[in-house]
From TrEMBL:
It comes from Cutaneotrichosporon cavernicola. One of its GO terms (cellular component) is mitochondrion. Its cofactor is pyridoxal 5'-phosphate. It is found in: Mitochondrion. NCBIfam families: gcvP (TIGR00461). One of its GO terms (biological process) is glycine decarboxylation via glycine cleavage system. This is Glycine cleavage system P protein. The glycine cleavage system catalyzes the degradation of glycine. Belongs to the GcvP family.
Length: 1053
């Protein structure tokens, strides 16, 4: 939607303005003199304060729980001390020396975005939540009502020890969530029947698109160019998946064809023959049908085409695994394993492949390796597949996954175990059969031949219309799937009890004008069908595709079924992982800032968790209000005119932005524009996203000072002006500086016919000071999981909304099921119309609580914290790039190259040693292979910055010990780091330095220290012998390291 970003005074007392007062039927007429009673539990009085009153800063009524001092780490005293260290009297003087004057804007104030206190924010959220209608949705289509076990909700979903961790690139400090993610992979492998699985993808639709890309990449270029490029899709695949396939296919040169019918699918395969690269088959399909695709799969393979299957994990506990009937790739949504619907996300997509595709699978894979002592340990495997290595040669731009949600699904499987999962599936299936029997008795026709949990009902045979059914169901607080004027869809789930099923059936009774039934009527039907609690576990599905193989025999899935055991298991894993609860995580370009409890709290509320993404839009007024406000605020802070929240990762945002640019060019008759200029220093996702467009990537050099080589840019822009599509540039740069040539660079591109994509990954440095639009961008994504405080979740979720200038707004992403996007919208980039909608609450709350002035203050403090660290380290390390005043932006680049020659020490040695100081290491070997990139964010207090600096100074002194020969070059505290407690307390100690030097290099560590749980991981061994699932006890009863490696060698690469 277009957003007016002109600055204007807000309505007074904005935090308590309640749109719900004017729009909700539960509110009184505003002209009434009657009191407006609050429904807000946290509000201690019946009357909300006057909306026309905002207390002055000196008033007794001024809120005491303002957010800025909660969010910003340094105190006023700390701030002044840091400014003194840098040689400035005021913050304004420092900012002026750091951010170029020519791109500055008027700083945001509370007149731009009025701040809420924490209590005001929670009141406002409750008002918004009350605007969502709490309906029971049986729409299905890949989204189900889920029961989140309370022990998992409290101990994982709501636990900062889990949700504030970063992607486990520092495996010695991440063994807990790595173990949980390999549990997730094991669930996927066991239920799909395929040997390799990744640790999650963004959603089911994008997973299907990744599978299509894999199928295309597997075809030799010569054959592909000669017409072997058709991807055939069943007509009963979920429509949102088809949407995303359409968006992705063109860049890969794939011809997407939708089959006319499933019955004629085999004939279409024969007709297309060797033109096929693959086919996407639903199992079960969107209408609930369980189809035997065995013969089709065989035919596809005979034509050298991949068999891709979209499935359901719960259904697979009762259905034959697709790996047993010919699937090459199996994917789907794991949401129903204990994750709230949340208006579409976030949810973890599962993805499994055959052995020969393991080097082509997108996303992250957790694999088993061993540490320096030989003990088994987990790590991220086969990273050379990923975009940060392969760049434009990658077939996927996947960066963010859905680790937190994958961990929830994994724990759900651990808690229930194979028997519990089978009971849930069996009960759901049998209740669906009871429903079918009840509806058939009313003369409605169930069109499914075989089904698991979903029925397609022809209501015309009972003399009623689908519209009558829907009106009756909505009046009863129930949503069914809207198919056409004769058919409705009903998908059951584990939340359905006797009253729920009775309510469903009574909709069909009332539509016919019949008297309602009681639950005992359905109980009689179940007894007639010989259904019971025991039969739910033992009775197979009535289908030739019934599962006969056991699953999940591993002890971890058969041990933790009491709440006590489950609680302790999750705590055991949590204690192995370093997160923001332990200390700062100074990862450059990752922005590991505070994820406030007040912004996280509403995620657990049913008002937001239970809304189906395809529910009628009038049932999601609260979501609409929140999302619209967030779009407006993001447009303001980025300097653009319109925003789409659909992309559910930064990389997805990049791709969406480039698709919007492409659509704009095509609208002007410039469909030939296919060249993208990208600096060599760019994030790997940039060239990968451009490659996914089918564009040619032309690299742009950097000068010795890290700035853009404008001469090189101009030469290449002029050279390619007839075909120039876009220029992708990060601002501030990935080198951690405000490039002073940015405006000239963007002007050069515009002069030569291109559009400018300004990557907003580093926007935490500029909010309220300048903007991505101000420096010449036409479109940008921002990472809400960086700049706007969504937690990283140990490797996801994330949100990557795109903001655009007015001329690109008509092309913002649309959706086939819910009206979104611009007038000439590109097709969807995510399965849900608003992507990972529920976690947008976090960024909305973050912006509202900080307000305009607070956002500006946060940016200034992020700059100050980074420059304070850089200044203190300047005497000890080489600061690679700074501006003319010696300043970096929000992160500083430390070059360690000199120490490889002097001491034989490389960047990983420094990173491992820093773990011994109880720190997560900074971003290592990127954007330059010899560097650390350090970003402290505004949330870290000065004493934590000093702790990091003191650790790095101590490490520098240890380097001198190696240089001076006081420590051996090959056997020292660096090469043997990190030193886990098991090594420090072991009986054997033959290292040429003391245990105390290894474990407590600075005195403060004796009071408090986070211990890495394993020693340094052997990366090569883990890639050579890929083991990406928990071992089966029948292979190895004792789970010994040697036996694990023996198993792994069966999968030798």
């Amino acid at each position: 939607m277009l957003v007016n970003i002109s600055r204007r005074a807000p309505r007074m007392y904005a935090p308590l303005r309640a749109r719900a007062l004017a729009t909700s039927a539960s509110r009184l007429n505003p002209r009434s003199t009657e009191p407006v009673r609050s429904t807000t539990a946290t509000q201690p009085h019946p009357l909300p304060p006057s909306k026309s009153f905002r207390p002055a800063a000196t008033s007794i009524f001024t809120p005491l729980d303002t957010f800025v001092p909660r969010h910003v780490g340094p105190t006023e005293k700390d701030t002044q001390e840091m400014l003194d260290t840098l040689g400035y009297k005021t913050m304004d003087d420092f900012v002026k020396a750091t951010v170029p004057d020519d791109v500055r804007i008027s700083e945001f104030t509370s007149n731009d975005i009025a701040p809420y206190s924490e209590l005001e924010l929670l009141r406002r959220v409750e008002e918004i939540g009350s605007m969502n209608k709490n309906m029971k949705s049986y729409i299905g289509m890949g989204y189900h009502n889920a029961v989140v076990p309370p022990v998992i909700q409290r101990s994982l979903f709501e636990n900062p020890g889990w949700y504030t961790a970063y992607t486990p690139y520092s495996p010695e400090q991440s063994q807990g969530r790595l173990e949980s993610l390999i549990n997730y992979q094991t669930v996927t492998i066991q239920l799909t029947g395929l040997p390799i699985a990744n640790a999650s993808l963004l959603d089911e639709a994008t997973a299907a698109a990744e599978a299509m890309a894999m199928a295309a990449a597997a075809v030799p270029k010569g054959k592909f160019s000669k017409g072997k490029n058709v991807f055939l899709v069943s007509p009963t695949i979920a429509p949102q998946t088809v949407d995303v396939l359409r968006t992705r296919c063109t860049g890969f040169g794939v011809e997407l064809q939708i089959a006319e019918s499933n019955e004629g699918f085999k004939a279409e395969v024969a007709k297309l023959g060797d033109k096929l690269i693959g086919a996407l088959l639903p199992y079960p399909d969107v209408n609930g049908e369980v189809i035997d695709w065995t013969s089709v799969a065989s035919d596809l393979k005979s034509h050298g085409a991949m068999v891709v299957v979209a499935s359901d994990l719960l259904a697979l506990t009762m259905l034959k695994p697709p790996g047993e009937w010919g699937a090459d790739i199996v994917l789907g949504n794991s949401q129903r394993f204990g994750v709230p619907v949340g208006y579409g996300g976030p949810h973890a997509a599962f993805f499994a492949v055959t052995e020969d595709l393991k080097r082509k699978i997108p996303g992250r894979i957790v694999g088993l390796s061993h540490d320096a002592s030989g003990a088994p340990a987990y790590r991220l495997a086969l990273q050379t597949r990923e975009q940060h290595i392969r760049r434009e040669k990658a077939t996927s731009n996947v960066c963010t996954a859905q680790a937190l949600l994958a961990n929830m699904a994994a724990m759900y499987a651990v808690y229930h175990g194979p028997e519990g999962l089978r009971k849930i599936a069996g009960k759901t299936h049998q209740l669906t059969k009871v429903l079918a029997e009840a509806l058939t008795g009313l003369e409605y026709t169930v069109t499914n031949k075989q089904f698991f949990d979903t029925l397609t009902v022809d209501v015309s045979t009972a003399g009623v219309t689908a519209d009558q059914i829907h009106k009756t169901s909505v009046a009863s607080g129930i949503n069914f799937r809207r198919i056409d004027d004769k058919h409705v869809g009903i998908t059951l789930d584990e939340s359905v009890g006797p009253l729920d099923l009775t309510d469903i059936v009574n909709v069909f009774y009332r539509a016919k004008g019949l008297k309602e039934i009681q639950p005992n009527t359905l109980d009689d039907i179940s007894q007639k069908l010989n259904f019971s609690a025991q039969s739910a576990l033992t009775q197979p599905i009535d289908s030739p595709m019934a599962r006969t193989t056991a699953f999940l025999p591993q002890p971890v899935f058969n041990r933790h079924h009491s709440e006590t055991d489950m609680l302790r298991y999750m705590m055991h894993l949590q204690q192995k992982d370093y997160s923001l609860v332990h200390g700062m995580i100074p990862l450059g370009s990752c922005t590991m800032k505070l994820n406030s409890t007040s912004s996280m709290q509403p995620l657990s509320w049913k008002e937001f968790g239970g809304v189906h993404p395809f529910a009628p839009v009038d049932q999601a007024e609260g979501y609409k209000t929140m999302l619209t406000e967030l779009e407006k605020d993001l447009s303001l802070v980025t300097g653009y005119d319109a925003t789409s929240l659909q992309p559910n990762s930064g990389a997805s945002g990049e791709f969406a932005g480039l698709k919007v640019i492409d659509a704009y060019h095509k609208s002007r008759g410039d469909s030939h524009r296919n060249v993208c200029l990208i600096p060599l220093s760019a994030h790997g996702t940039n060239p990968a996203s451009a490659a996914m467009m089918g564009w040619k990537v032309v690299p742009i050099k950097a000068l010795n000072d890290g700035s853009l080589d404008l001469k090189d840019l101009e030469e290449k822009a002029v050279k390619h002006k007839d075909n120039l599509a876009a220029f992708m540039v990060t601002y501030p740069s990935t080198f951690g500086t405000f490039d002073e040539g940015i405006e000239k660079a963007t002007s050069l591109v515009h002069e030569n016919g291109g559009q400018v994509y300004v990557d907003g990954a580093n926007a935490n440095a500029l909010v309220g000071l300048t903007s991505l639009g101000r420096v010449g961008g036409d479109v940008s994504h921002t990472n809400l999981h960086k700049t706007f405080s969504i937690p990283h979740g140990g490797g996801g979720p994330g949100v990557g909304p795109i903001s655009v200038k007015k001329h690109l707004a008509p092309f913002l992403p649309g959706h086939s099921l819910v009206k979104t996007g611009g007038e000439h919208a590109i097709t969807a980039v995510s399965a849900a119309p608003y992507g990972s909608a529920s976690i947008n609450l976090i960024s909305w709350a973050y912006i509202k609580m900080l307000g305009g002035a607070g956002l500006t203050e946060s940016s200034k403090m992020a700059l100050l914290n980074a420059n304070y660290i850089a200044e203190r380290l300047r005497p000890y390390y080489n600061l690679r790039f700074t501006n003319k005043n010696g300043h970096c932006a929000h992160e500083c680049l430390i070059d360690l190259a000199e120490f490889e020659d002097k001491a034989g020490l490389r960047v990983p040695d420094f990173s491992k040693r820093l773990q011994d100081y109880s720190f997560h290491p900074p971003t290592a070997q990127w954007p330059i292979s010899t560097c650390w990139l350090i970003e402290p964010t505004e949330s870290e207090p000065k004493h934590e910055l000093d702790r990091l600096v003191d650790a790095l100074i101590s490490i520098r002194k240890e380097v001198d010990e190696v240089i001076e020969g006081k420590q051996d070059k090959d056997n020292n505290v660096f090469k043997n780091a990190p030193h886990p407690l098991s090594v420090i307390t072991g009986e054997k100690w033959d290292l040429p330095y003391s245990r105390e030097k290894a474990a407590y290099p600075v005195p403060g560590l004796k009071k408090s220290k986070f211990w890495p749980t394993v020693g340094r991981l052997d990366d090569a061994a883990g890639d050579l012998n890929l083991i990406c699932e928990v071992s089966n006890p029948s292979d190895n009863a004792n789970f010994s390291s040697a036996a694990l490696w023996k198993i792994g060698k069966r999968r030798r690469l």
